[in-house]
DNA sequence: AACTCGTACAACCGCGCTGGT
DNA sequence: TACCAGCGCGGTTGTACGAGT
């Protein structure tokens, strides 16, 4: 049995959106909020598939979109995140406020790929072209998350190949961090094993720090000892299993003694709403 | 002016995941 | 446990537009 179509294609418009359609969609979402995409077109009086409405809103009509050219900083951040996450455009977009996964994907394919090739870097493996060609099966990069005790910077080294972690592996790690006190060991076990340094000249070290304001907030929380764990921040503080506020963790994890970072693997403590949604 | 080609990006499609029943 | 609906993601396609000839 095949999958049922997401909408009745015979009665839906396709192709470019008109101004009137945009206006209807924006007006409806402003009045009723996002969600229920399947029923939205009918309710909003649009002859469009729900998926199409969602895409139009997310990629083009959302008021918080930045639009305009990518900055050099955004370029470099995309490159570094891509070397770590691969084609996980939604995750990458989660680190670039105002940018959408589609926008970043397009930008990658049209600009950054060429830019990397011009630099002699393979856009897939993020290593020098010669090396990538001679060792095609090797993985793109190695991520080593190190969090010095009194630092809020996560350092990720790309100097040797790794296996790109699946989303559930990355966030599964987060879950394990919350559920296990022995996090140094846990993290080390999850870190991809370093092979020999294959491209020492290619230094794509990524340092992800919380934005300035968040960093300041972190500092003040550290002083006052009021940090809450990821579970608590989601309103799950009643869950003994998930809440580790009472546990002291010395590397990556949650601690209320003010000496470490909450759920900060890969700098994800600064996740915005979109990222949080993707983690669910 | 007309045509071709390349580029950029909006939009579509199919699949996987998740939650509800 | 199986099934289904809905949503979200990533890959691909379609098309507008500008540059070059």
From TrEMBL:
GO terms for biological process: regulation of DNA-templated transcription. GO terms for molecular function: cis-regulatory region sequence-specific DNA binding. GO terms for cellular component: nucleus. Residues 126-156 are annotated as: Disordered. It holds the Pfam family Myb_DNA-binding. Residues 130-155 have a biased composition (Low complexity). Keywords: DNA-binding, Nucleus, Repeat, Transcription, Transcription regulation. Residues 9-61, 62-112 form the Myb-like domain. InterPro entries: Homeodomain-like_sf (IPR009057), Myb_dom (IPR017930), Myb_TF_plants (IPR015495), SANT/Myb (IPR001005). It is found in: Nucleus. Residues 9-61, 62-116 form the HTH myb-type domain. This is Myb-related protein 308. It comes from Spinacia oleracea (Spinach).
